[in-house]
Batch of 4 targets.
Target 1
Amino acid sequence: MTERTIRIMVAKPGLDGHDRGARVLARAFRDAGFEVIYTGCHQSPEQIAAAAIQEDVDVVGLSCLSGAHRYLFPRTVELLRAQGAEDITVIGGGIIPEQDFAFLHEAGIRAVFTPGASLDGIIEWIRTNIVPRN
Amino acid sequence: MAETPAEKEQLRKIRAGDVRTASRLIRNLEDGLPEAKSSIRRIFPHTGRAHVLGITGSPGAGKSTLVDALISAFRKQDKTVGVLAVDPTSPFTGGAILGDRIRMQRHAEDPGVFVRSLATRGALGGLSRAVGDAVHILDVMGKEMIMVETVGTGQQEVEIINHSHTVVVVLVPGMGDEIQVIKAGIMEIADIFVINKADREGTAQLTSELTAMLNMVPEFPGGWKPPVIRIKNLFDAGPFGESVEELAAAIQAHHRRLVETGLLGDRMRRKAMIEIHEALRDAILEPILRDLMQSREMDDIAGRILRKESDPYTVAEMVAHRYLKSLQSEDTQGR
Amino acid sequence: MKGLFSKETLGQSAELTRKWEDEVRHSAATASEAKARWTTVSDLGLKHLYTPEDVAQMDFARDIGVPGEYPFLRGNQATGYRGRLWTFRMFAGMGSARDTNARWHMLLKGGQTGLSTAFDFPTLMGYDSDSPKARGECGRCGVAIDTLEDFLTLMEGIPMDRVTTSMTINPPATVLWAMYCAAAERKGVPLTEIGGTIQNDMLKEFIAQKTFMCPPEPSVRLISDTVEFGTAHVPKWNTISISGYHIREAGATAIQELAFTLRDGIEYVEDVIRRKGMAVDAFAPRLSFFFNAHIDFFEEICKMRAARRMWAKVMRDRFGAQDPRSWWLRFHTQTAGCSLTAQQPYNNVVRTAIEALAAVLGGTQSLHTNSLDEVLCLPSDHAVEIALRTQQIIAEETGVAATIDPLAGSYFVETLTNEMESQAWEYIEKIDAMGGMIAAIDKGFPQLEIAEAAYRFQQQLDAGQKVMVGVNRYATGGNYEIPVIDIDEQVEIGQIERLRSVRKRRDSRAVRRDLDDLKRACKTGRNVMPFCIAAVKDMATVQEICDVYREVFGEYRDPGLY
């Protein structure tokens, strides 16, 4: 059986341009052997969902530091589901207060990583939880 | 081989332009799943309608931005567009950052545009192994213009011709591209030259060097002398747009010339030959290599060669002989 | 050139140092150094001991000198903080204009001496609150401003002739500044009396923070327009705050922050001179800077000292400025947001205090201290109060404000200052060779240098070579609950209602005419400021004006270099 390569989209939804975390993660994912599709800043959930489907990624990682995650994250999940792509896992990170975790989880965000999360920890989570699909 | 309902459905969906199905199939091809190969067999008869464009040039030449602008130009003519953006896989980690689509993201929501990033995954020759088949898939989806963008570094720039009808080579003044052009044999593959960022110093020099080189060629196939098109500064919206229109027109003129002169047939034949070559490699060489690796015979052989007990040619002959024989016997068993 | 020490002293120093080295080598064998390599947070290598020999080549008058004199290593003002303390300027803004106005009044009552505005992302990016792109963002990271009406609410009860205001605004800086001018006029305060700062530094946006709208070239042109307008009409205003803060937050090293910021400054000065034909001394005294105070105490102090000396050289030697005030590098400082941790958040109070102390020892003119909860959410009133008190304790209890540049002459501090300066010059020369900062940005040079540094730091953190307490060491306990402030979704609804009501009430024909005039000015190269002021007075919205810019100059999209 051929080993499948994990494909992950690192996306920055919304208007905030703080992409330090997104860029560091993109590099770390590359070095972990993943194929990383990076969208750049200022993407709408619509653009992200469309790109994720065209790229057939296993995971979409959303990074948001502006506080708008309560709208942007669930909206991305909703758009993926509406297009039959519920099998794409959505995770998120950024400045996200703990009391929003339950809300985001409920909305279909599988994991939330906040400042201080180690690269290895995030990569490990993906390796454990993501199986490239047929 | 009878078609299953699922296979029928897959073909129907791809022909209807379904993005999920198409992108999944490309993924399966990249991952080398055997069932993906057989899907290609089924879609193959429906290919051959698209105009395939290869766009190559050195890193930082502004290819993605140009592809982005060409998408807009083709969409204005109501043509559907497919893009395959190839980026290198890191030889050390097997990972890759595929960032070309960033510059095309404004088209993400346009249903007439399909952009797919591919990593080279260490394929020989630099182009992703899946490129040829991915082109077929986009073709069957009904994309009228298909652009294959590759980071050109020597070998790969030349390979792109195997998959395209029209090859656009993108150069930038002041990057030492003149020398690259001669070295990598790009002169032979370019149907159109683009001088990007043509507001930079050195534009006139690059143009005249290119023209001089082209003037030394006594005759071009089909009488098509590659035009040299200067693309203006991206942030000079008016002139930039006009120069992109000019490029789009040249691309289409080239295609017309191919059709009129019958050269299109030659290119298609060349493409077919390459595909046969690749398919044979997949069918014969890959399984042999895999076997040798898995059975550890490869270590053994390498050891023998190191000890000078044998040489690569003798070993290759021996292995080829053994496998061809076994293929024959499988055949007679009627599998 | 005279060295700092006599031959005799240097001889003694060399001898004693050798003895010390022997001693250490012996003890190192037993106590074995905990870390193989000791570095600053920016990965700059440090020696175990600095001695007179490290600074022997310095010339006192040329390289060190006294405060208020070239090269201003020791400060611009001869009187230091005794003459005037730094300005306590806390960045604030959230929700609606009314919410922010209330926070401002609280801060002024608490002893803050200058205002500082944070805008929300739609405002920062030049979109109105009802734009589809603004969904979910309204009032979240700062105050939402759509029209002059919001701005007047923001300034309610604020004495604009006495309090100076800093506005962190970049692509739409012309628009928000026009609103400030229009608001002053409404209150009867002449433009010559208002003071403050607009950040208005686009180059660092392309390099680091990615809040951009138009391409670099026209972005710089708009900045030159504000410099020209300010010089002629609003003489107390600082029209650019050339910012290293965001460069650092994006993961740059201290040296990169220093080099890229000063090189940005050079680019702006060149543009004003070339485009506007202004004499450098006419505008240079109003240029201001903005640095980060990170956690590495000495590195930060040295960075600020080096910055002052470097800018003096740039202005005097590169631009031939004659007025000593043109040679001054005046700067605001903010403690490092990226040094704060969500884990064990109360530790952030300590970090901020140390960083603020570094900024003061580095000679800052103005300071924002981060609140302990900023890594989690918008700061609460209580957290802001502690942050402000931190500055007051440094100013009034610790005694550090009594003596000017107290660390001068330290072998270590002077050496590190010199090293940082010389490495920063290398960067500046490299960027000069590329054809300037816009050309370098086009190549992705500063962006990639920063991305590389950010990744390296994260890897060192993961490997335990760099430490963040509570994150990768001592990570247990201390996770106290802290109250998190959230912006009600009602803010967005209310803001959109207000905006729509203004659109209904205003004279739309006048707005259209104003916008046409502005468009013409953009195309012909006339200064946009008077046209902006006219437009905001007629209640043109932030986005309407920015759409004109986008239409004429084009839109810059993230090139996504990685």
Target 2
Amino acid sequence: MNLELRVNGETVVRDVPAEELLLDFLRNRLDLTGAKRSCDVQVCGACTVLLDGQPVSACCTLAVQAEGRDVLTIEGLAEQPEFVLLEDAFMRHAALQCGFCTGGMLLTVSSLLAAGDLTSADAVRSSLAGNLCRCTGYKGIVEAVCELAGVPSA
Amino acid sequence: MSVESPTRIAAPQVGRSMQRLDGREKLRGEAEFVGDMIVPRMLYGKVLRSPVPHARIVSIDASRAEAMPGVACVLTGSDLGDIDPYWGHAIRDRPIVAIDRVRFHGEPVAAVAADDEATAERALLAIDVTYEELPVAGTVDEAIAPDAPLVNDGPLRPGLFHGLGELPPRDGNVCYRYRIERGEVEAAFAHADIVVEGEYEFPAIYQYAMETHTVIAQVERDEITLWATCQHPFLVRAEIAALFERPLSSVRVIVPYLGGGFGSKSYTKMEPIAVALARKARRPVRIQNATGESMVTSRRHGMKARVRTAATSDGRLLGRDVECWFDTGAYADNGPRVTATGGDAAPGPYRWASFRVDARCVYTNTAPSGSYRAFGATHLQWIGESQVDEIARRCGIDPLELRRQNLCLPGEEIRQGGKPLDADLIGDVEQAAAAVGWAEPKAPLVGRGVSVGLLAAGAHPVSTAIVRMEADGRVSVLTGTTEMGQGPRTVFAQIAAEVLGIEAETVVVRGTDSRFTPYDRSTGASRSTTLAGLAVMRAAEEVRAQLEEIAGESELDPATYPALIERRFGLAGGELIGHGDVHPEGSGSYAEGPVFWEVCVAAAEISVEPETGLISVLRTATVADVGRAINPQLVERQDEGATMQGIGNALYEEMIFEDGFLMNDTMLDYRVPTFEDMPGAMTSIVVQNGDGPGPFGAKGCGEGALAAVPAAIVNALADAGVPMTTLPLTPERVWRRIQELIQEGTWQT
């Protein structure tokens, strides 16, 4: 199928099989490997990208579902001027370890911040529960995100 | 582009929470993992796995699959006739792909290499295998029954690095047995005022490193090259070299960043099958496991145990008697070491008059078990510590006070002939207890618990490192240590920078490429900061000595490093190279170890909802007794991660096998902790007594908390009125236990 979409602000046109997953499309055809494959069943969030600003699991989204839409990956987010704020907060709080979940985590956080949904530490915890991290114990991430949202972390 | 040379003697580099050197690369999605790599001419491999737990392979016909367009080749057991195709870290019991027989649900039976993953997957469906099912030993009880089917029936052949002394012959399905005994155990129990005893079960657990096992193998000319998600690249190199009959220097292992390990990527895993497939295809091949495949590649041992503890009525601990059976699955992997470490952890660090441990490692027709963070200690600590608390209750003594009276003191013997205790356990547990409000009044249905244990840490003390100072005065560190999230690259930069008086942010530390980076035994057992870090310190000291020699009388100033190097070589080139190594100082035997005793100390406060059995973890505290924290923030984060996994191990996580079939092989059915499961207050206490054998008095951390947290939670739940003997503490299990207590008339709340 002929597919046209915008990825990180650039128009992309490709011929893809109907069954191709958005995750494979991004990783294999566009060499955007920041979205990671882990659970394959929309549980872990490592493959998260933003589709028209909303977080989706690229492992359970067909590439053709992105027809005519805007996809933002971690590579694109990292180019945006406000990314530095996220980056610095995560660095200060050591809110990452192996880095495998981190791209998806940051995309979810950026969409929640943009929507103004993070009004308390509890809201941070419940809104991010779809992104797993197996290294950190989540504490540093909660601290960093609360700081970005301007809410107390405890 | 000009490069600034280091210009000043920097402030202390060790002991500061510098930001991770790999942080920004990871945050921006630039960090490269094996699954992100493409090698020219690379094919994609997929593995056909056994649909049954135990069967004879009557026939395999791969001709239809091999004829499919885009399929390069299909690997089966019949391709391995030119080598001895069995491998295994402790016991060489495992074929590269099944030969004549499958022993667990999910065992590799064949593998396909194809132009893309979809083609490879379609080809798997075109391989025709006929199985004749055999009786299944699906549990430890079934495997140790008198008429049990034998999972492995050949002679036991030790693996390359088994380090377990003389292996006794296999006894039925028991492939290894570890026994220790001190004093007169039966006499202690005969004369005790109090004996607490019980039977316990610990589940099989999936480590769940979010990055699954992934390998690219290339077999070209005389060299085998692997890009692999492995924690121990040099042990993998040795095993691949032995298996494919090559010299060590002809096997090259490259390890980029790992997306978590936790022991799941310890020792060899998917590398042999990837090499065999690439060898047949004559092209590089990448195999990337799906999560369900990684679950059957490595897991934590399930275990059952019978334990009893004797004490006097005034709370003096007398003796402990432990029998336990570790379910190692169809192949031993690291099971014998897990069993021995569990045996060492079983008594607990108390001043026993006598104890006896009999730990067995048992083959079953289930997926193989290997290492997982704090193995052995996690299995046994919650059991022993729950009996200590039960004794405290019967004596009417505060559990913390009972531990004060009985815990070993620094310098006291833990294991006969081994290293004496090198930590202040009483001080550690007091701090942990205080952090969860030990002395504060409690609401009904709230409980608090502490736990104390020890883990033999450091594995085998062999590490080497190279520090290079280039002509511009910049420093890079070469080690074989794997960065899997725990932060060794940052820590090594701090150590080298401290020695050389430069800023750690200017130091470059990259991953392993066994062609260039020197030997490190392994990344695990909390050893990297202590042992590889010591090698890095020594290598940096060698560079400093060379600088001092060139500088003569004048004091070293990093601003002059380029000039000093120029003075040595007579031009603005050349480099200084320092080498450091760490090797055993005694005989090197495991018995003289460990390198250090890692403390496993935690406290927890929980509440339980009797209507549902649901547990909420309110507060936790863990103790990282690290001697000296090279980077305090990274130490705290390590123990927070271990706390999270400890909560998972205690409350949620369990691989469910029925008749040998794994029933929950997706993350929909296997539940790990999320943001919402974390306690409101999670305290990581960092204790720095300068008593470690590593650089600047450091010793390792990051595992002990995982053993300690489940034990503290079990004790907190018993304190709230619900004593439990099976993990995980699922709501159903806790609710059923409460119903039993109500029936017995012992439900107090």
Target 3
Amino acid sequence: MSADPLLSVRDLEVVFHTERERIHAVDGVSFDIRAGETVGLVGESGSGKSVTARSLLGLVDAPGRIEAGEIRYRGEDLTDDNWDRHRGDIAMVFQDPSNSLNPVYTVGNQIEEGLRIHQGLRGSAATRRAIELLEDVGIPDAPRRVDEYPHQLSGGMQQRAVIAMALACDPDLLVCDEPTTALDVTIQAQILDLLAELQREEDLAILLITHDMGVIEDATDRVNVIYAGEVVERAPTDELLDYPAHPYSRALLGSIPGRTAPDERLPTIEGEVPTPTEPASSCRFAPRCPKAFDECEAIAPEHQRVDGTDRTAACLLHDPTVEEGER
Amino acid sequence: MTDDQPLVSVRNLRTYYDDGGIVDRDPPVRAVDGVSFDVDAGETLGLVGESGSGKTTLGRTILGLETATEGRVVADGRDVTDLSGEERRSWQRRVGMVFQDPEESLNDRMTVGEIVQEPLTAHDWPTLRVAVDGDATLRGDMVTRADPGDDTTDLTVGLRGGEADVTVRDALPLSVDDVTVSVEGGPTPTVSVSVAKSRGAIQRDRAFDLLERVGLPEEHFYRYPHQFSGGQRQRVGIARALALEPDFVVLDEPVSALDVSVQARIINLLSDLQAQLGLTYLFIAHDLSVVRHIADRIAVMYLGNVVELGPTESVYTDPAHPYTVSLLSAIPGSASPWEGGRVTLRGTPPSPRDPPSGCPFATRCPAKIRPDDLDLPERTWRALDELRVVFRTRARAEAAAAETIKRLVGLDVAGRDLDETVSDLLDDHDLPPAARETVAEAIEMARGGADARAAEHMREQFGSVCDRDRPDPSERGDGWTSECLRHDADYEGVSETIAAREDDR
């Protein structure tokens, strides 16, 4: 693992302009991904995780716009309109494979398109490589399957084909947005195994976006917890699971059925995830937070080290400058 | 109803979908293929399995929303798959269903109040069941004589001392003051009941009560579903399902579309409602952690069959069926109760149009029994299995037009692809000469376009008892059954086999 991150996101702000309001979907998000590691981004719907993912590839559409911040890929800021120079270095796998594949082209055509654009392969050389890619992602009988249409593949096979399409660009970073959410648990296990194997073989970096803490636990090295457009906690995965430092991470983990005894009531978080229409001037979780105190409504918390470790949480509970008595 | 009698008994139930047109000679889809179990009053039975395993169809068939092809669903001594008219409507009032997707299961053109009231209107609710002590003739709109022995009557009229003494069941949005009872004397008195509130007004009040019960403020009555979040919409769906006071509710993936924090609140609400109203749930879900939390017993479905059924904790801590083992081991993270390594299943379930002839799980089973006369390493068996699946898949795929033409004019289209696939699968395996010959014969058949015969040939030569015999349910303990041939004492057990093979892989 090199010291310099492959991708470094700093203070990213993505704002959606609607007639009524400005929605700060991503509001000052920062994180790093190094070569060969898997970084998780976990949060509920509306937390801004998918928008973050799309902005890494320059795929934010109007009315959304990246308003501030940097996305540095190998040191070069992509937000200076450098996406085209790095198309193919970062590839994306979306949640629903049936929406990512074009139903009127064969699976082979779609992979070969990537091979032509990014690697200049054509004709039988491209077909040969497409078959290899399908084999790499574990599709049996690939020489036959390469000529099939998406509807002839099962959901799990479709997602494998989508991953093969992403690999056709020979990326260094794979952004996976809920790659297993549409799949059954046994198929999910297959896809997670596949991603881990590809990562080992190709030294791929993976950004894994999910709402599923189990997937985070199995597949990621480090994790960022995102709430209402802000990363609220950043930690090595096993440490987060052992000891969530931010009250939101704690509440999120607590509400998962597998972690509570069957006859107990599930702990819940009251209220709804707010839609951030203003820049943060207070902690956005404060209205739902069981630990909130007066200061939480007045200060937008910065990331603080947790107990002197490398992990950080954006919470006044971890801010040494806030007096104990005020909490 | 006595306590030891199940609320619903499902016996050998089959639901086939047959789109058999004149041209279409496809066999039917066997969505539910011979399922038997009981649902006890007051319990939550969890139903888990992958998509396409027939969970939803099973739930819908029990409620009468799909037509059963064969078998019975018995409630109160009647087969409810075969009801019509008033009997059918009376069964429909006793059951409710909550659907998966709150975005799609509510009509966006109706207000929440109208949605919750709709089942009440459709069933002309209420018709008040009146119990009168002693002999009497009953008169009035909106009333009917309660069956003798019915202990949940809506109105009770006592006739002692010439004055009628009326009580109204608590759950109704009616007070004693809304009801006027007059008695005309005689040896068999005539009791006339009139209700001051209109049916519409009672329905409306009932809808308000229901909203309150599911935790929605009353002003939501006038709003439209699109104004709500997923969790709130699911609450509306639950209120609608409970409108007619059912005792049995089928919940089809009720929390799958929701975020975890919202999911937790809905699960808690469902538990509360069950305790308050004495409901019985059939809880269909693919999320095994959710089912573990809420279900007393669990039924595991695969390809239209219930392969294992038992008390939730027993099944989770000591799964008997190899499919249950695979499912539990696939739960990501520390929520998985399986302590061994992850048993990753290969491939996808076979088509329910063409299920395997023996054990439905044989094509993917990590503990499949191998034939005695051939001793091969597990990885070679898996390669041979995979080759058979390739033939089966090819047999099912519609041949592309161009390919059919090439084949007609005698071009060897399948050949080159096939050689490559076979060599990928088998090149680094040592096959004994007889086995090698079988593979060569199968390839020859496939080359001639007979993919199905090739698959069949592989099955005959390399198959085992699992491909031939359908296992019977075997008793694992009190009310705990599993359908696997390995439960026979002649064979090594399921978990031992899986552990040994994972090491061998």
Target 4
Amino acid sequence: MKQSKTLDFSACRDTLRLALIGDAATQQLASLLPVLFARQGIRLEVYEGPFDAIELEVHDRNSGLYRFAPDVIAILNVVQALRMRYYERASSGTEFLETELHRITNVWDVIRERNAAPVIQSTLALPVERIFGNYDHKVPDSLYAIVSALNVKIAEAARSRTHVLVNDVEAIASHVGRRNWYDNRLWNLYKTFCALEHLPLVAQNIADVVLSIRGRTVKCVILDLDNTLWGGVIGDDGINGILLSAHGDGESFYEFQSFLREIQRRGILLAVCSKNDPENALKPFLEHSEMVLRREDIVVFTANWENKADNIRRIREALNIGFDSMVFLDDNPFERNLVRTLLPDVIVPELPEEPADYVRAISELNLFETSSFSAEDSKRTELYRQRTELEQTQSSFASVEEYLQSLDTEITVGRFDAKRIPRIAQLFQRSNQFNLTTHRHTQVSCEQLMGDPECYPIYAELRDRLGDHGLIGIVIARHQPEELFLSDWLMSCRVLGRGVEQFLMNHCVEYAAAHDYRRIIGEYLPTAKNAMVKNFYAQFGFEALSEAQDGSTRWRLDITAYRPTKVFMRAVVTACAIPETA
Amino acid sequence: MEEQQLRSQMLETFRDVFGDPALVVHDTTTASDVEAWDSLTHINLIVALERRFRIKFTTGEVATLHNVGDLVSLIKKKTP
């Protein structure tokens, strides 16, 4: 907390406005949070609502909360405050539970009507008292049963509301242990809801959720093999000598692999980086009956005797993602330190000596926070594998055109629609490199764009002979009096060089012409990661208008001078794409 | 513990919590005499002193503290 007074924001490229409202004291959290965000290069402005005034703040249109115009609203409901109301209850416990749930969800819904900010709702730590002992669970009226049920219902209600995310305070409290978590003196005197030493964990938890909304997500886990995925050294011990089994002494590794497979199913790519002969490294994947991970679960497989930092660079190039979205897991401290030193952006957690503790050690770091999950996530490994396959076939064609034609590509373009909003919002969050302005639109703001008649927000989906690439591009064009303004343009890097951007620009020019615009304006806002699109507009014949001090540039295209680029794909432009206005 | 030692350890904690390495307090010093001493840093101070001297204050003890002198005698009473 001391650090908050001497924070240096000079390295912060980004500002974020977080409102904190709760029925407990929030001052300590409010002073911890800016420290955590400054470490991520974000200058955090915090608004603290008055103590215990959640509803007042939310219902009053002129409250400090709305005047602050927050980017994110964190709501803290604590069990101590709930307990006081519980003691005063006039109705049955079941009715009390419903009332409390309604209070919470009503707050979310009112916020949703008045503000586009996502809401981060806390769960409640379970109380220490068990009036009925173990029988508490069987009595729906007990405080213990009510808090358990309320947490479940908060989660259920949040599932149907895309703007609500969960700050699982109960998970932290149970991890710390309730006898350490609570310091009721602090509650009685200052309305602080847990022992001071655990507040940084709560602050970190809120920060993790906020950062995931802002696009900080892990996309790939890079794995060592010997003594990480199995016990022993495959090159020395051979296929029958390594430790790996569903039961007994190889079980730690079996469990660890099972955990990694869940991570992969959840949409995170797995890569291998091993110092080994390639044939040896592959052998367990192909021949060992107890291997949980299969060769096809690994998107990039590197096994050689070169240094691991160079191999990780290669993996990064193959996947086209940032170093800061990669986690490197290796049992060997030398390799970990080497990677930390040479590639400081890669996340390199310490692994305990005991392999049975691998899963716990990694889980404690909460590396895989996300603010969305869609069907596309579970297909990601397959998509990336197709792409790598593509690059291998690419070289055997005489010309790029010939190659592109052979792919039999189909592009679908349409206005944002409800069923695609989760994936659209996700692309806004994830896309860093091919992103002209990096506006992090949330699900809520995407929904607003969807119905805005002054706006033409479109997505692009791509499929070809090798498979379905899903939704890979977004452009937002805004009607302005004299010109069409391209406020957002982003694409998934895995479809670069396919003519998608050329197709979309042709489409935008057609749209502008259909709406009697003569000019299109484009904008580029530099970030640490999007240098690759610095001259994006120049390639289409846009003329540079201005360059600001921060490096942001504006571009203008006179559409009469535009020559459509030839593209090699079939187009499916859905009916609503160019609405019959004007 | 020697009173001298106790007082110097307390001062170290005060300086640490209030972020002022030159801070000087007397028995008669109260929260209103120290700029950084507000309700928030007060909790930090109490918890930091508890950790430093491996003691626990009760709510009643914390509530009846008036100045640094009260704090000194309370800690003296609680440390062996």
